[in-house]
Fold these 4 entries.
Entry 1:
Amino acid sequence: MNIRRFKHWGWGYEDQQLAPDAQRQTAQLAAEHLGLELTDLEQPVPLSQTTLPGPRVAPPPALAEICESDEHARASHALGKSYLDVVSGFRGRFRHPPDFVARPREEAEVERLLEWCAGEGVAVVPFGGGTSVVGGVTPEVPSSFNGAVSLDLRALDRLLEVDPVSRAARIQAGAAGPALEAQLAEHGLTLRHFPQSFEYSTLGGWIATRAAGHFAMGRTHIEDYVESARAITPAGLWQSRRLPGSGAGVSPDRVLAGSEGTLGVITEAWMRVQPRPEHRRSAGVRFASFLAGAECVRELSQSGLEPANCRLIDAREAAMTMAGDGSHALLVLGFESTDHPVDDALARALQICAGHGGVVPERAGAAGGEGAGGGDDAVGSWREAFLGAPYVRDTLVAMGVLAETFETAITWDRFALFHERVKAAGEEALREVCGEGGRVTARFTHVYPDGPAVYFTAIAPARRGEEAAQWTAVKRAVSDAIIAEGGTITHHHAVGRDHRPWYDAQRPEPFALAFAGAKAAVDPRGVMNPGVLVEPRVLIDPGARVGAAAS
């Protein structure tokens, strides 16, 4: 099958790997901005030098044409893109590869694959674009299953239908961000959903993980754009009615959103779209401290202005992204509209900023690119660093640098203490397991009238070969602090396998029982992404194996 190949271990495609000189330059620049000493760059273990566990099951003959079981297909679908995933792939460690990868070309093939998997006791792990940073696509399934299949829908990537009157579009779930937007652009439309993983992540993955886009206010979580969704479950078709809104019981679309592949496979959706914005303005505002900027952002979030971008970045992170010199926090502020100029809205927002001691630029700029990005130099530098961060992280792994992120949300009344305690927990953990030289930075990714989504980044020198233990200690310390202080374990990165212990503590137990019951109804053999969100209630004899392996 002629498909551009992902790197088997890191971010992007094989043809995007940096040349040695370019990688060295990137590493040198990263070391300077992180204040770390540059050591020798380690090279990834070639796939030819790795040994994967052998497949336990083979594809059924009727579906063999859409299945692959070669080393590259299995390795590139064995991990997501978390720091630990990248380190594991970099070192050539693929402990839980799928037995084979299925790439259906039509919905009927999805249906046949699920039927076979349910009958043979084989787990199904939807892959999306493979950008999960929480273990959501790793085929690490209980031993009671006879195997695991990675389900890759990227061949289902078409814009099927446009309703220009209602401003909606029917799109297949395997469409990645760039292809999706290119097809909509032919109609003068946009979905206006730009997560950091936009280049590779897919519409179905966005819905399944309740992904949030680049925009800081208003519609930002993907479920706000879903008009109707369609999924194939082991028990049959899940199809909701196209409606602008409904109060008819629990929303079937909202149940699918965030289900992370545990209920079925999302194959297409009607999405609310809009004309491409013609009016954009942005500015970067400096604040003496992160907390001073936070008070300003709180007023902005409650003002009704609803800027498209309202990202507050602390001084250390501003310096790391070349958007500041480390002496001030930076607010990246932007407005956009499909209908009218936004100069007045930006002017009023800047007045609010000045009232909180913000240093306002003399002249705000017209935002460049998607999502109110450009403007002054600081905003442009931040945006370039934001889009390039996943690529840089691969270089950080080669440098021997631990880099992990934690995104959460909290109400405004608890924010200051929450920020202090979570950051302190992260810094203490870094000192204990990495020594001196580590740091924890913070920024707001999204803001609401009742609170911000806070995004913490932990960076420190790692001990090569011990990254997993170091990562686990930092992950546990920060996640424990987030839950103890009343925050959510995730704002937009989903739960996956990595967040399960803290998600179990966050959710109400009656809800867990209700969700398990719903899963049992549509997935009676429990084959859909087992280990994610909830333990399945498998409706078969508990003393028997799930199925008989096929050869």
Note: The domain at 168-275 is CATH 3.30.465.10 (Uridine Diphospho-n-acetylenolpyruvylglucosamine Reductase; domain 3).
Entry 2:
Amino acid sequence: MSSTEYYDGKMMEGNIILHSHLSNFFKFDSIVIKGDSKVKGDIIGYNINTPVPISIKHGSQKNTQVHLPTLHSFSKSTDMPEEITAMLEKWLGVTNQNTFISWLNGKSPTKNQQKYKRLYATDIPNWEIVVQWFNNNKEKITKLLIQSMNSSDIPAKYLVWVFKNNKNFQVIDVDKLVDWIVKECKWETGPRNNGSTLRCVNTEGKPIFHMQMKGSGGYNGEYNHNPQFHIHTHWSPTVIIHKGTLE
């Protein structure tokens, strides 16, 4: 996610027209902008004194970033086994050249391996247990990505996706979306670039999530080599409870 996309999303959290639509649909008495990167509820709607956290996404027709933890925080949040964490560290890469070289076991690195100081899925023995772990923990991971990042956080009840190209929006029931993903989707290694991504796909093979190495597009920033998750709009129509246009 570029800084422009990030700030576009933050601006949408305060969009008065969107607030008006949501207030009319949910019969909110008020809406408060949360603006906290540590929670999934970007805004809070209130029915009298009852808070309703809502996640706001201002994305393309395709996808937008949904979570950017460190590998340490992600592994801690999901009770990830050390073996899986160690394999993901190789897959995400490092900045330390000596650490990277130690992973090669005497082999010469390819151009892309050296560029990003990472190994791809096809380079890591027994990689299939990483995919298996993601599928065995699908519900926990899904809730972390779209509902709640910690036990003290009130889980997001709804997700609002505002499409950049036409300002149409959808309101998604997050509980229904979680249930649908757990039942209908599965994690797999991405088919391109020797397994440089992990994706959670629906029964049609279309991704609902994908995870990549932050910085794989060439941008050199402080979050490089962290696991970067994106959400896609390939969800079932059954999870959509409302549609509208910002006008």
Note: Residues 111 and 236 are 40 Å apart (CA to CA).
Entry 3:
Amino acid sequence: MIDFIKRLLGSPQTAPRRAPTRMDEPMLSFGAAGDRFVRIASLDFFGQYRRSPDGRWLLAWRDGNDAGTHGGHRSSGPGRFYLFEGDRLAAQGRAERPNDGQVADNGNFLINDWLFGDGLKGVFRAYRSDGTIIVERSFTANLLNSGIADDGGIAVCQTCNAPGPDGSLLAIFDLASGREIADWLPESGWAESYAFPAAGRIRLRYHDGQAYDYAIDGQFLDRDRWIDAQARSDNVHVLHNLLRGAALPPMMGATIMASVDAILAKPEFDPTERPVALKVRGLCQEALGNLASALSDYEEAIALDAKIGLKRKAAEVRRRLA
């Protein structure tokens, strides 16, 4: 009789548990406008979130253990992530240290897993809206950020600086085929976010409002415009890096010198940066054939900082003048 009742009612241990299709208590509570955190009372969850461009999907993640006692760098206690379609819980999962979530209009979403422990490492994962993995890649570098096209077809992730082939790498993934299609080092540096304006094109967007397009294979389509913007920078280190890393049109030297002169004329200019500024101006002067002016800048820069790396340059210019 007891067995019959158990079969009729179902044993607590063996009765199947239906996955929820809608939260009994959606309870997605948000902070003030601009706050990127969400609280989900029914899941005892507090973490960051991002919505899809059309607002249909919400991806939430927490880089901390379930008890809320350990977050960020740690050796155990995996974090969680949840995907909602409206107030329906569509997918959920775990990662050691989930970060930088992104979600597209079709529900495809990204998680950068920063992993437990020390060392330069990270795992990029792209998921379908049901939580199954589309593509996964491990890196021997920390992950900086990621991006996904509005339609969920293309995704990218950017690594931080690191020794070896994975350092400062931008990797591109075709989510329709579930494979990586390219990786390269963006000449314009680490971007803040990404857009996908046309087939075969990726747009890197920066903190200063600038944006530059690349082809999928890494060809820098907006290189001339980027060089011009860099040459007009008010940061001597940006100008210095430009001279070290790019083949510049000859007349760009005059633009860079004008930028240096404007920087040196600022009342708030930091005098500790004067040697670098003089080095940049001297290199431009030399490239334009103004050897006496170049030598004057080199000698002053060396007097201020003997390790500025100009002693051989100065000696060579002296020989040419002689």
Note: The mean pLDDT is 90.
Entry 4:
Amino acid sequence: MKTYRPLAFPQEAPVEGTIIALDTEFVSVRRPEIEVNAKGDRTTVRPIVYALARVSVVRCSGEDEGLPFIDDYIHIRDTVVDYLTEYSGIRKGDLDPGVSKHNLVALKVVYKKLWILLNLGCRFLGHGLKQDFRVLNVHIPKSKVIDTIDLFYSASHLRRLSLSFLASYLLKEEIQLETHDSIEDARTALKLYKKFLEFQDAGILELMIQDIYQNGRSMGFKAPAARKDGLLIERTQTPELGVEGAHHGVAAGAKSGPTTPVRKPVGLAPGTGSTTFSSGWTPGKGGGLGGSPLR
């Protein structure tokens, strides 16, 4: 099932400053182990472990703006204990090379593609990218990141706004109904960025951000309930990683962060032989030329 079209080379070859929109999805490969003492206090002995399951990257300009050129599902060697379908959209079979209808690749292939894009000078656009990069176990320089969660943030209100709320309030679009889709989320981040630029060019950005917060408070900063075929549809909110430095194979609370070597013929991050990372949070992202490195 082809959900993307590779970049056409050389006409679509990324250059310094090319903006691309990214989102990721993940699954759980180990449940947390929790001990309860005589007083009823709960202690996490082993944290839950997640694995990267899908990476989607869409074009942000040109005639095919919004069309994905990468939509990779990851072949996970570990046993998946929870596909987290409500949050990830990933279902049993999607990651199985024997039955999957998706573009299933090894984790190192995804790293290579992102490494190429980074070294070509691309800027990564998305919403809450700090979490995506943690899932990916990569470090992208701040100068190469455009995060809509920060663009529409007001420090005086001490609250960051969800993608679904901003999409509903600013774009009048309903997303993340019943489940999540990384292509939809990446496209939505692109639309929000264009709205940000529109407000900025008109000189009304600060007024609009204040308006969003003032009116959002009465809505609980949540997108209104949506209906489909007369039925109320539940909306799933993306949970945030609650542990700094948690990444592939590192226990929650670790202080070391992932690294991304630039212009070196190696993977994007250490430990790329593993597809997993652990955390302390609980869920509530050439016209077909054969030699294309981004295929």
Note: DSSP finds seven helices and eleven strands in the chain.
